[in-house]
């Protein structure tokens, strides 16, 4: 940046905005961290415009940036994208607003061809390859996503109901479901689930028990993971075909269930594709900040 004939360091901002926090990372053109900030929820769909603007105000360390990349929840919706573009454009000439899953992809690939899968309460599969882009999932908690905490928790409840009603195999998952719900019969479990105050997203708390019981040989838990594994592998193959990725390109995994799924699927993926699944530890906000640097430097030439 040239100010009055003096050369000052350039600064690039990455933002990661979700349902619980808004994270901000400012770096220089050499990648040095200048500032790291965090504020409250910034999911426009959940908290509204006023609270979203307040969250943004708490993390803007500087008055001007040479590039901003913001990965925001809900930004695939045009009106959400436009809101954040309008909020950020006073701070930089070069602003890019994308869905939050794309900065997770950037954290894994640094903009190179590849694909990322985020396994958390929900899940999303995403890849890019020289202009080709493809996304699968990210349907939200009302529908659920393959391999997600909600999908596994919902399946655990169904298996428990089947066991309690006598038409499904006995399963240790019932103990986890009872601990989660306080219910020990189909009637009381259904009453708990359909109570007006019940947050369906909390079923993801049961996901770890599905992995644990499957490891112990539980028939129902093993069947749940077996079906989910087939669907996950199909979605990865679909992404590879859609964006013309090499069969040997690696897949990055993020989210609270990434480690468990890697342990279950890495051998099968290596057998069929000759590459490994990689658990990504780099934060998405870091991917956004370095993407902002590439954006600013490219347009600044």
Automatic annotation (TrEMBL):
Domain ATPase BadF/BadG/BcrA/BcrD type: 13-292
Any Pfam family: BcrAD_BadFG
Gene3D superfamilies, alphabetized: 3.30.420.40
CDD domains, alphabetized: ASKHA_NBD_eukNAGK-like
Domain of life: Bacteria
SUPFAM superfamilies for the chain: Actin-like ATPase domain
Signal peptide: none
Name used for this protein in its record: ATPase
Native organism taxonomy: Bacteria, Bacillati, Bacillota, Clostridia, Eubacteriales
